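Progress note, project year one: complex with zinc ion.
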Amino acid sequence: MQENRKLEIRKKANDFRGKCKKGKYGIIDLFQDCKRQEWKLLRYPLGENADLGFTVKKDDDIIIFTNSCSRLSREIFTLAHEIGHVILHLKKDNSFIDNNMTINGKNTDENEQEANYFAACLLMPHEDVSGFIELEMSNPQGKDLSAMDIAGIMSEFKVSFDMALNRLENLSIIDINQKLRLNSEKIEKSVDRLLRSVGGNARLNVYSNEIDIPYEYIDYAIYNYNHNAIPEETLKKVLDCFQLDIEDVRDRIAIRKSDDYTDLDDLIGGLDD
Ligand SMILES: [Zn+2]
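Model obtained:
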């Protein structure tokens, strides 16, 4: 990624951060901040092997989905990544679907790299991370950070242990040797215990299994299904939240001729309040 593009992304992440409620350093609840954008946010435990998240723009509506069947810290990163797509890439009627490949940081697709960079800058901006380490840990150089310190960083910035290490390395606060040492300390002590030992937010390390789907999303699920954006399995799971099955909505699905869209579009258009 070019330096001027990186700067542009940092600016956009910083602008969005300005709209978020922050604690002393980190964002408190990115899900709430996302809802205040009048974007439509869905959370659902789709299963461990399912996609991690997606975002889609339909007319003037922006829909973000995150799979809550992943550790909360991971789900927050997915959300930050999807916000990156919304702000950097999303145009009318396109979508991004994310899984372990697109969010693992090793993906070579430019949009995915940019969304990951946006997420890192949004959750752990350089100046706040440095400030936290310097002022709260009395450790201006980040020298000899312990795994407990990393757990403290996790808690403040609502990120996973691995994300914290990657970001600290990218910011040159730790080097590869420190990263390896901290990683083995993590394996030895377990993230749960580390979080407890610093009085940290233990919820970050467990699956939230949160279900947050306003009823109107049935229409979006059907829309996405009809546009081949989600598999039948996903549609079934959404319907299941409302104790419905495919048969209950049979007359509205799998209509793939464009001239048949009018009714559905009217329906979705009527949900704009
Ligand atoms: Zn993505």
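Residues 256-273 have pLDDT under 50 and may be disordered.
The chain has three domains: 3-122, 126-204, 217-269.
No further modelling is planned for this target in the current period.
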